[in-house]
Amino acid sequence: MKDLRITSLNKSFGKVNVLRDVNLHVPSGQIAAVLGPSGCGKTTLLRTIAGFEEPDRGCIEVGEITVCDNSRSLPPEKRRIGYVPQEGALFPHLTVADNVAFGLPRKLRRLGRVEEMLELTGMANLGRRMPHELSGGQQQRVALARALAPSPSLILLDEPFSALDAGLRTTLREDVRTALKESGTTAVIVTHDQEEALSMADVVSVMKSGQMIQTADPVTLYKSPVDLDIATFVGETTQLTANVHNACANCILGQLPIQACCMASVNQATIMIRPEQFIIQQPEEGIRAQVTAVKYLGHDALLTLRILDDNPQEDLEVSARVSGLSNYKIGDIVGLKVDGEVMAYPSENKRDQMTISV
User: Which residues cross the membrane (predicted)?
Assistant: First the structure.
């Protein structure tokens, strides 16, 4: 197992700066997700790690080997890095087994490496099939088996589930994570799917305009995003203006404790509350609110509620997540309570007076 370390990586195409001083460390045997919208540079980052693109400057190390720095760059075939493209890219004229065996030395073939990888990826007994006889999910499994077969130091996955339907994506990403963990391979997956990144990765890096904005474990990233852009990118939020005093945010929802990572020294801030932090109670308990919309998602539902205040300064709506078994309807009056600590961010004109330390 090898770790991956990227230092001050830069890449431009003409006058467009695609990667800007990118830094990333993926410990040995862990899975990292690079999360970001289309066009943020994440696929270019992956191709640069693989050696398909040459950086303008910066350093990439895999284990103790420097595969790229300002003075030299190893060709892709000498980097011992596996690559799984978006749609598998299997050879259509070769069987499943021959696809996995492609590029393997004879010794590894004789040792049963192909059968071992097919077993690991859940494709045992399908080695004689042709790619066109497989489903999209099965083709991705074969592509992963082919990438793992040479025992690479690192494996890269480029939006590997984007072409699959929602149900298959969920199952396959669980299976792929299991296969990667069992093989002990260090991996980097790029995706624009927040759920995919949070559920698969040990560490998630959010990328925006060619820069890494925050790198953290999934729980920290979701609970304590460093800014409101990341907060809204990785999940639904309610954002309120609040007065800050003694590590508490005073707002229309009451006095709410602020997370310790928010070092607030201003009188006013914007607080961020996740939908699952809202607890629905009886109307006489907590803050009174009225259900204005219900978005049913099966396993849960997202309620939009308008705060009922005697002297509201503005119409205020919040989003609350409840069980899919709940039966709330538009017009219902409920009580609201906020559970746990909230994140606080400086108001635009006070940004220099407040920092978020994660």
Answer: none
